Amino acid sequence: MMSDWPNAIAHIDADCFYASCELTRRPELIGTPVCVLSSQDACIVAKTYDAKAAGIKTGMPVWEAKKLLPRATYIPADFRYYGLLSEKMFSILRRFSPDIEVYSIDEGFIDMNGLRLLWRKGYREIAHDIRQTVHNEVGITVSVGVSVTRTLAKMASEYNKPNGVTVVPGRMIDLFLARVSLGDVCGLGKNRLALLSKFRINTPTDFVNADLHLIQRLLGKTGSDLWHEMRGNSVMGLELTPSLPKSIARTASMGEVTCDRHTILAHLTRHTSRLATEMVLKGFLTQRVTVFIRQKDFRTVAGKIDFEYPTNNYFRISHAVKDMMQGLYQTDQEYRACGVVAERISRASESIPDLFGVMARDDKQASLFGTMAAINRRYGDGTLRVAGAHITRGIKSRPRFMYPMISAL
Ligand SMILES: [Mg+2]
Predict the structure, then answer these.
(1) DSSP readout, 99-113?
(2) Given 111, 355, 375, 379, which is the most exposed site by the fewest CB atoms within 10 A?
(3) How confident is the model at residue 73 (pLDDT cuts 50, 70, 90)?
(4) Mind listing the pLDDT tens digit for each residue in 277-299?
(5) What's the 271 CA to ligand 1 centre distance in angstroms?
């Protein structure tokens, strides 16, 4: 039997992040259903648990949601604000450990090894401290999972959502696996689950008891990595200093077959916002973005966008993606999936000297979302304030909340 903590990794996952961000500035809405809309206000990109309970799903067209739940509050997405709260959340995580991986806008991993000595507390207490500190200082709830591998930590954070802490030491892995389902394992989508099911692998326990060679044959390296990780052998590790990837993709099935242009655009917008945010958080720029939409018959149409200069500006990318999608879309086709892929990736820190020239040319874009992180890192928080004054120029005249100044700690 394995020891309790041969390795310790925490996964921190904000609960319905976009919607929770909105509640921090609209506290009067706490306890009521709230839905966040894509930037064309076409579909739901996030919702509170109250809205979820009423049957609202991410990706649902707004008209459908409103029919289902007319009394909910519908708020247009404000990715700049979510980006600010995300940075604030990660600055808190860095207080607990220098070794963190920014996994997405609202999820991160922490290498917990050694922290018990440092904080003179057990992992459960440290996890509670993290949850409590984020709640006190950012105003959102997060769920924390702590275990011996990143796969188990991620499953653990999912186990007790929202606002929960789940700790799975080595000795408890079998008990834990008996209480979750295979669909909860990150990396096992519908198709893989169906394939496993043909071989009578229907539960996490079946999975870890299956022959490694079979898993490898069915799912390749992803499968064998998961098999080791779910048995408590850490093989995936954390990506502490992001290496320069060849590409970053954000793609998914739309969960339905649709010919509705707005629904596809809404999904692409969500992918684009997540892509841009990931690049901002990791300090990456892209000079080429490929947009693809997959038809009902699985044929894929794609188009490449080459930018004049490397960027991670959400509005700039999103605008180009929208244009490209309009060109790819055909009214007589039905579509099932879509996505965006960034290529020709470089580091923002290495292109700083050009930044202000770029911004001058780019001022019609009127947004600093994409460059905010780089500027702050390089020039300090005051720059964000100065730049922030330009943000509202050119943006729709919807009344906007004044962003609180958030300083990186
Ligand atoms: Mg989350």
Answers:
(1) -EEEEETTEEEEE-T
(2) 379
(3) very high
(4) 888 877 789 999 999 999 999 89
(5) 15
